[in-house]
Structures are given as C-alpha cells and as structure tokens.
Amino acid sequence: MVENFCNSTFWNSSFLERPEADLPLCFEQTVLVWIPLGFLWLLAPWQLLHVYKSRTKRSPITKFYLAKQVLVGFLLILAAIELALVLTEDSGEATIPPVRYTNPILYLCTWLLVLLIQDSRQWCIQKNSWFLSLFWILSILCGTFQFQTLIRALLQDSNSNLAYSCLFFISYGFQILILILYTFSEKSDSSNNPSSTASFLSSITFSWYDSIVLKGYKQPLTLEDVWDIDEGLKVKTVESRFEIFMAKELQKARRAFQKRQQKKSQRNSGATLHDLNKNQSQSQDVLVLEETKKKKNKSGPTEDFPKSWLIKTLFKTFWIMLLKSFFLKLVHDIFIFLNPQLLKLLISFVSDHNMYAWTGYVYAILLFAVTLIQSLCLQSYFQLCFIMGMSVRTTVIASVYKKALTLSNLARKKYPIGETVNLMSVDAQKLMDVFNYLHLLWSTVLQIVLSIFFLWSELGPSVLAGVGVMVLLIPLNGFLATKNRSIQFQNMKNKDRRLKIMNEILSGIKILKYFAWEPSFKDQVHNLRKKELKNLLFFGQLQSLMILILQVTPVLATVSVRRLEKYLGGDDLDTSAIRHVRNFDKAVQFSEASFTWDPDTETTIQDVNLDIMEGQLVAVVGTVGSGKSSLMSAMLGEMENVHGHITIKGTTAYVPQQSWIQNGTIKDNILFGSEFNEKRYKQVLEACALLPDLEILPGGDLAEIGEKGINLSGGQKQRVSLARATYQNTDIYILDDPLSAVDAHVGKHIFEKVLGPNGLLNGKTRLLVTHSIHFLPQVDQIVVVGNGTILEKGSYSDLLAKKGVFAKNLKTFIKYSGPEGEVTVNEESEEENDDGGLIAGVEELPEEAASLTMKRENSLRRTLSRSSRSSGRNQKTLKNSLKTRNGSALKGKEGVVQGQKLIKKEFMETGKVKFSIYLKYLQAVGWCSIFCIIFAFILNSTAFIGSNLWLSSWTGDSQAFNGTNYPTSQRDMRIGVYAALGIAQGISVFIGTFLSVYGCNHASKILHEQLLNNILRAPMSFFDTTPTGRIVNRFTGDISTVDDTLPQSLRSWIVCFLSIISIIVMICMATPIFVVIVIPLGIIYVSIQVFYVATSRQLRRLDSVTRSPIYSHFSETVLGLPVIRAFEHQKRFKKQNEAGIDTNQKCVFSWIISNRWLAIRLELTGNLIIFFSALLLVIYKDTLNGDTVGLVLSNALNITQTLNWLVRMTSETETNIVAVERINEYINVENEAPWVTDKRPPADWPNKGEIRFSNYQVRYRPELNLVLKGITCDIKSTEKVGVVGRTGAGKSSLTNCLFRILESAGGQITIDGIDIASIGLHDLRGKLTIIPQDPILFSGSLRMNLDPFNKYSDEEIWKALELAHLKPFVVGLPLGLSHEVTEAGDNLSVGQRQLVCLGRALLQKSKILILDEATAAVDLETDQLIQTTIRNEFSQCTVITIAHRLHTIMDSDKIMVLDDGKIVEYGSPEELLENYGPFYSMAKEAGIENVNSTEF
Q1: Is the pLDDT higher at 361 or at 696?
Q2: Contact, 1304 vs 1258, CB < 8 A?
Q3: What is the pTM of this model?
C-alpha cells in the first residue's frame, strides 16, 4: 500500500545489514515527514485555545517577529515551487508517485498554520511557543536522514532528481535558521522578569539567567540586581488560592474534631472536658492550681485540635505543579533504566568483533541523547519542586501572619512571640524541604521495583537474597523513623523554650545589666541548649544507623504540620457582640454587656448598661483594677463575649495605656498610613506638645525611632501615640489614660488643646480613662467603674450631689491635698528613659484584664498638691516655646542629620567567605575529630575501589573457566574477599558519620555558647541600634543551619570528593587515554564552579538579610494588634508583610534558578564525559574486553552524578558557612567593660555610700552630643538626694552612668573613694540597687524573679515580701513563692510588679539605692507604705530619687536640679525655695510653697 504511494521500497532490513547502512527513501518521505507534522497538527488547536484564553494586549511588531514570519514565508514559497514543479513534470506519461503531490500540499498547510500560531503569540508575554520549538527540533532531526540519503544519491549519480534535492536542502537550511531564531528570547513590555519571556530552549537550559551570573561574578549582587518574581508566585496570588481550599478543609477538620469531642465527652460524661483553647488566667487572683492542672493536661498526649487538613490543602493548592513535576520525574526515572540497557548493548558490541562500527556510534549517540533528556527532565523537575517548596513556605509564613491578625486573645496567650517566629522560620522551612523531595516517596519505590525487574531478567532468583535483606530492614527503619520523630518533637519544644527566654533577655536586657543577672539567664539558656544538643546528637547517631535516609524527611515534617495545624486552626477573635451601625441616635451603647478575658475565670465586665451620646467627652474613673481598661478593650472587641452586646456608630481610634510605637520615623508613626496634610499635621504636633521634643531629637520628625520606641521617653511615646490617633479623622476616640506619663503643665496643655471642650477633638465622641481629677469638672459625663460594673454615672455636679462612691473618693483626695483643695495632675517629667520600651514579648497587650492593665495607670497617683495660681510665667514659656519652635522643627529636614538614623542597616559580607570562617568552624569541630573522620572516609573509598576492581576481575573468570567447571574454592575466595570489602565499607562509613555527628554537635555547642556570651556582654547601645528580629535571626535561622544543614553538606562534600578521586583512579587504570579527556573537563568544571559560587553565595546572604525584617515586622505587629485592629489597618499591615515576603522570595527564587543553571551546565559536561568514554570504547574496540568496558562506563555514568553533587555540595557548604559568618559577626561585637577585673573592691564596699561626680560627661552614641556636660557634686553618706528637671535634662542618664550603662566621655565618678571605671561591671552593679521605672519581670517562678542566683533563704525572701507589702498576696497564692509568672509578668498587675521590684531591692539592700519613678503604678495607700518602708529600711543608705512628683522628694536632704545636662541648683529644699530659682518655679507650678505643704 505505502510502496505504491512512493513507487519504491518502504522497508527492508537488508538496508541496515551493511557497513554503509541507510534507510529506504520511501520511509524517510512518509513516516519521518509525518511524525513532526502530526505532532504540530495534534497540539495546534489546544495551543491556540490557550493563547486565546490567556491573551494580554498585543505587542508591537519587532524585527524578531518579522524575521520569523519572513523565513516561514520562504518555506511556504518553496513548498509552492515544489508543487508547481511536480505539476509541470506530470505530462501524464511518467508515473509520478502520489507522495510527491501530498508532501508539498501538507507543507503548504503546515506553514500557513505556523504563520498563524506565530502571529497569535504576539498576544502573549512569552512570544516563543515551546511546542513550536519542539516541532522545529523534531522536523530537523527527522529531516537529517533524508538529507544524508539525498547527498549519497547525488554523489552516486549527479543528475538524480537535482531540482527536488536542491529545494529540500534550501528548506532544511531555513528550518535550521528558524530554530536558531527560536533560541533567542524576546523582551516584553508587560514583564520585567526574563523568566516569563524566555524562549523554550533558554528556559530548559536556564540561559536567560546568564546575565545575573555574569553580574554576580564581576561584583557582589545587590537587591536591585535581583529580578522580581512572576505575579503567579507572589504572596497575594498563592495565598488567596490557598485560603479558598483552607476554608473548606478546615471546616471538615473542625466537624471531625467536634465529633471526636462528643465521643470523648460521652465516654467521660462524669469528667468535665476542658476547652481546647484555655490558657493562663488573666485575672489578678489567678487560680494557680487550675493552671498547673492545665499544664499537666497540656503536656500529655491527649491534646486535641482540628487535624490532617494542612497537607490536603497544600496538595489542592499546588496540584498543577505536583502533576507537572510528577510527569518529569517519571520520564527521568524510566530513562535512568535505559542507561544500563544501552551499556549492556555497548559491552556486547565490544565483545562481538563482527558487529559493524556504525552500531557502536549509534549506541554512543543514543547513550548521550538518553542522558541529555534525563538531565533536562531532572533539572526542570527540581526547578518545579523547589519553587513549589518556596511557595509552600511563603504560604505558611503569610498564613501565620494573617492568623496572628485575627487570633483571639485567649489563643494568642498560648503563643509567645518566640514560638510563633519559630512557626514562621523553622516549621515553614521543614515543610519547604518536604515539598522539595516529596516525589521521592513513590520514586524510590518505582526505582526499587524496576531494579528488581531488570536484575531478575539478568540474574534470575538470586535477586531474592538482596530483596529479602531489604524487606527485613523495613521494620527497623520504621522503628528508627518513629524514634526520630519523637526526638524532633522534643527538640522543637526545647527550641521554642530557648527562643522564649532569648526574647525575654533581649527585651529586658537593661534590667539584667542593672542587677548583674546575666550569668543566671545565661545558665538557663545553656541548660536548654544542652538538652537540645543532646537530642541532636542522639538524632545524628540514629541517622548514622538509618539506611533509607530519604524516608526521614516526611517524618520530620509531620511534627511541623501538627504545630502549624494547631496554630492556624486556633479560634479567631469573635467580634459578633460588637455591632457597627450607621444610623443610630447614640455614639456607643452597652446593652447588658458582660465580657471576660478567659472563659474559665469570672467575668471581668459584668452587665454593663451605658449610653454615650455623639460628641460627648466621657471620663471613666475608678480604682486600680476596677476594670476601666477592660471596658475600653471590650468596646474594641478584644475580649470574649459572655452575653449582651455593644453598638458603635462610626469609626474608632485608640490610644492604649502602654504606647505602641513602630520602628520608623516619628512622622510615619503619626501619619500611620494616612495621607499627609501639612496644616493638620502641624496642628496635631503643636496640640500634642511634640514641637519641643522635635527640637531635641536629631532630625526632628524624621528622627528614627527604635523598636518599641526604645529611644523615646515614656511621655514622648504617649504623646506620639496620642498624636497618631488625633491625626486620623475618626468618629470615636478611645483614650486609655493618655496623660499618665506626662508633666503637669504638658498634661494641662494636651487637655486644653486636644481632649477638652476647646481641643482639636471637640465635637468628636471621646472616652477618656483618667486619674487626673481636676479635669473632671470640664467633662460631659463621668462613669465610675468598680469590680467590672458601673457604680455611678452622671455629670460632675450630679455625682457630687449624690454623695455616692465618687463624692466619697473625692473627699479622700481633697483631704490629702493642700489648703486650696485643688488637685493637680502628676508632674512626672517624661524623661529620656531608655527603659521606655523594654517590656518583653507578645503578651504585652495594652488592653489586658483590668488587673494587669495599669502599666503606668496611676503614675499620677493622685499626687495632691496645691496648684499655684501664679505660675503663668512658666505656662507662657511653654506656649511661646511651642510657637517659636513651630517653624524650625519642621523645616530643612531633607538632609539626614547625624544621629537621626538609629537602626543601622544590617551588615552583609560580600565576596568570598573568608578562609578564617572555615577554620573557625573546623576548630570548633576539633582537629582530632576531623582527622579521624577523613581517615574513616578514605578507608571507605579504598574499600570501594578494591571491591570494584575485584568485581571486574571476577567477571573475567567467566571467560577463563567458560562457565562450565567453576572451582568451588575459587568461588568461595571471590565471594569472601568481596564480602569483606563490602563490610569494611559499611563499618568505615558508619564510624565516619558517627564521628562527624559528634564533632559537628560539639561545634554547634561552642558557636552558640560564644554567641550567647558575647550578646550578653554587648553594650546597651548595641541593643538600641539593633532590632531584636536581627539578633533572634542569629539564634534561630543561623544556629539552625549550623545544627542541621551544615554538618550534612560537609559530610556529603567529603564523601563526594573522595568517591570522585576513586572513580577517576579506576577509569585511568583501565583506559589510561581517559586522562586526556579528564583534564580539560576538570578545567571546565572548576571554571563553572568559580563563576557560579560568587552569585549563589551572595544570593544566600541576601536571603538571610531580607528574612530578618519579616520577623521584626511580625513581632511589631503582634505587640500592636489592639491598635491595628482598632484603626482597622489589618489590610495595610498584611500588605506590608506581603511586600517583605516577596522581597525575600525573589532572592530565594533567584537562588533556586542559580542552582539549576549550574546543574544543567555540569550535567551537560558530565554527559560529554559519558559520550567521549563511549566513543573511545568504540574507537579502541579491538584493544579492550567486556569487563573493562563495563567498569569504565558504569563509573563514567556515576561520575557525572557525583561531580554535580560535589559542585552542589561545595557551593552548598560555602552557602551554609555564611551562617557561621553571620554568627561570627555577632561573636565579634564590641563588648562592654569586663564583668570582673583583677582590681576587685573590698567585700564590704561600699560601706559608707559616698558618691562624688568630678566634671562627669557622657553621650549616648559617639555621633551624638553630650547629654551630661560636666557634672560635679558630692553626695555624702546616707544622704537622701532628689533629682528633678524637665524633659531631656539628663535625669535618667545620671542613673545609667552610675551603673556604667553609659560609659564616661570625660571626668569620673568615685564611690567611697574607688573610681567606678576601674572595677568590673558586676562588682559595681551587684553593689548598687535600683528600683526601675518599668517593672520588668521574667517568665519563671516568683522566687526566681526575686533571687535568680538562689543566694537568699526563704525566710529572707518572705521578710522582703512583707516589707514590700506583697506577703498577703503571695500567701494567698496556692503555690506561694513557686507561683509561675508568665512572659513579661503579665499575670500580675503593674502595681504588683512594681512591688516585686521593691522586694528585689529590699533583698539586695546595698548601701546605695536609686529610685526611678518607683511608685508610679501603685495606689495612694500603698505609695505611702512604700515611702515609709524606704525611709525606715534604707535609712542607713544613700538614696538617689529621680523625681517625677515633687512631693516624694520634698523631705530629701538635698535636691539636684538638672537642665540641659548641667546642675543648675544643688542644695536643701528650704534653701532652694528661698532662692527663687528654677526649683522655686517648678514648686510653684506644682503648688508647693514651703517644705511642710507636702507633708501627709
């Protein structure tokens, strides 16, 4: 049939059975023409449909497009000419075969179709179609046969069909030209990422990435050099897809979980079931027994939550990628098994001298083609898997962040910041690793099955012995995998605990320095680290035993999946009880509203009914712990609803009690994402009294604020927080005690200008929690809160007339105030305190349960003193200063002022990792260990070479003995030696791995120890200028790399390097000529490597640097959640997070591509090694025998994989050693002075407590101005000195100098005659006592918080508690001194925390005591008790009080007045009041006219 079609032979095998083999022309003109055309016509409709669906705007016509269309046009013309020739030849006599007509017609139609497809691609971003590229490749390959047949025919007979042959040659040439055009990529306007516009050939060889590698080789890459990722990979796209599936799957999982709960409750119907989401109680009288019970329950395995939905969701989200990668892996795996078959054919070719030479060449070319396809499939598969892994990590990080924005407070209590950051870093990374190698689960099984199948066909039943051993090892592996999983689980817990402590240390670092407590906390971290490393060591030892090591990865991930499912499945904030309406006659209405912080405890807000009309100013007053802040939090939807609801009309703004300030400029903090309106902005700055501060701050409103507002004082933070709310134009303002941390005159200014009847917010609804009683006559309504209910409400005059609770309390206040009976706001000057923002951890929620809310709630502590009417002079100066500075503070801020930038840009090494870093790591491993490890692996390699050569000579036996009479003794000898070599290999690998696990574990321990020791010894300025996220990143990401990844890549590197040496040795022993090929290929390998490593290393660094901001931003968000939610800015913060992740993603994506770029080039080089080896074997066929060929080729096939792996491991090791480099950077951070020096003070020093300042000067950072400008004064033994001064006068700097938190810039301080700069810091700090402004506690027992070194007996501690008026409270706790304090002391009220700090001081009881606003958060009665305790207990001590309220220091022996870093007055209160100087005017302003007017 086909023969009639061509008029010649279609197929005859005799064509192949000769040295000059060829295919029949008919076969070439039919089958080989139809294959590419069939491929094109089958796929064209699908391709055109795809273009139609995904079209964008049409691109303009380019030269590329024209060139392609013109060349295809020529092909069309050639086909038409050929058809015309055939028609003219057809005179009816000579029979022209039909194929001569059909082929030109087919080609005419095909070229028209190609023109259409090429035109349609102009609508796409990617102009070059992958399937057209494949069509051209197929067409050229199939045409090759006809090409050589026609040439041969012309050589034999020059006239045979000359015209037809010429047309074919020209069209063949055009096709090659078109294919060359198809290798180039066309740029697109709509995409700036070359990966999306790369041609098919450029994509599969990753050539589009050349320019970055070249750039990275010439100079270190920066973020700007790295291309953005495609829209399809950006967080927004991936996450929105994930969310759709997550909603469905989580719902199913929750239903299943409820069913489980029901079954359980039926089973234990007697026992009550605790709710899943319980946590530490939030109330002050926390039931600790309940808590310990819960903790026991928690640690047990019974904890339940919605499970097994995460993996399903991820599968559904990424199924297309999974499917593509599955297909590529399948093709690769099948092709792997074609190699041995071709090898078998090559061996038989060499052994059989009668076979034609061309057969050998065909086998060699086939071997090259198979390995080439294998390489291309493998690299594309890896690219897909790694990008999928990256997307999974991105999805997890984005989901954890999004969840954090909506997580209920109750669920949030379970997750300290450290643990949540761990979910984002470690767990997300583990999931990423699993998705990278997910397909190995089925691929290994497939490979084993195929291996057994092929081995069976070769060896028959003998295979079963090997299979038997494998089956026996399965249960052992299973057992080891389970064991590994439990170790991992334990380790993640240890990691979380270590991170939690690290977070607390970094947040409370100043307190640790004040009390010289660093060693105690260092030991805590070391103990956890010891457990972690012990587990790691055990884990490594088990791994040394595990044979099927790849099966481990999924096991490790199950732990991470569980943790993530638990977090992401947690309860969201339920705000259904808060109803937002548009049309309503009231601004806020509480209807029978009851709210609680924890469903297990009593309700905090009970049955509140309250109406607030629009535009009213409502004051909320009440004693400490009465529930004022909780009432505000309930309005914001931050609490759990018990019953009732709250109706709110309009938008809300919120000023929390503990100011939340973002790391950014002051301007950014105030604008908070809103448009900039200069007029409004200036008004707000003036009204919030911020202009004088902007004068002091370097850079004015563009001065950068550190994390948590670390470089602002308490008062400045509160005013920035108030300015932020005022600037946003909302309907309702919820103000939680915004005046607690400001001076009297500033408080008055703010009330008049912002909050009061004539302030900026006039006409808005304002709810003001306050203790400033003298503002109350000016408010519209007063709400008195007590025990979570409303005791009274009404106007000032109504409540006085009622003579209820409010009137009674007011009488008490008046009784304590002076004769004029007017109450003033506290004049706590908002000092430049650095303690401002150091409260640690996520738990720092400004809207805690009432009992905890008071941070500075009562810093005013109804400080009652007469307000002098005649202090107008000073009031005027404030107003004048505001006016005069108005202009100057906001102008000329374009240039960066010295000191304006606080947070330094993260330092990033560039260029090669220094050799010293490798040495540092190897030194940490230990030289002895390294020698033993390398020796063990060399033994393994020697045994490997031996066994291979032995096997080769064993194969030679078959020819010697001809397979008939093989002597038993010979067989036993062969088997015995082979077995011995095998066992030697196994044992040496085990020993090498075991030793390397031990050595690397030792290195991890040493590096972490050095890092921790140095961070704790870093000066305070380091913590002010380094975001916590950055330091935490060293303790999480980098330490994790040193623990897990680096040891593995180093081990692999050694093994690879040695096996390559052994393979080359073996090949060269068999065919010495091979050396000629090895040398140039070696040079190519090394040069590719050098080229690539520069880029890869820098990308890894960029990845690390872009990861820190994600964690920093996350920590900041969690701390400010109530504010973000109140302003409804969740979307903006989510966007910010997405931008951060995308920046990090582009570095990871680039790194993935750089790996593939390298791998494909190395594999091509490796494939050439195989090809040349095979060619050499074909050429030198006569001098070789089969066993040598087998040895050489099987090793050559191995060498490519191993060489690639070596280069990969070299770059991986260099990339991972970057972690050591980053750790080393912080190990070398400049330290503060030594803790203990050779010169130690006497044991009883200071026994007098005399302090002398001699011309003492100090500055915060080298680039800033002096804050103390030559202080000179003497403080005698047991003198009580009060220090006063306006904001920025340098009061807190004075305490920092005594503790040498700030080192001298000139002059000296002596205590009892010893210069404090001459002794160790711990000798100094241990002998001074401070009660700091911010009462910071750490998680642990109450006893640990009082005495971390266990220096004191229980009796002494109880005595101290009694003196600190805490004994009744602690006695009432079920666990007494062992009561667990939560992170940042959140289960104690701020007042109680302050008393614990007093307890610390009473225990330490040194000769010198410094009080820094020590009684800010306790009520009046307690304040008096504390003052009495201090007077009695510290009567024999020198006491320096930083006064924020003048009445506390009026009984001092001396008063020091500071201004602008200098002492302007120093003397007894009586003297200073008579001087009519600065102190006199401050006293008048506070209403103090003589010393006795403040006596209680």
Answers
A1: 361
A2: yes
A3: 0.73
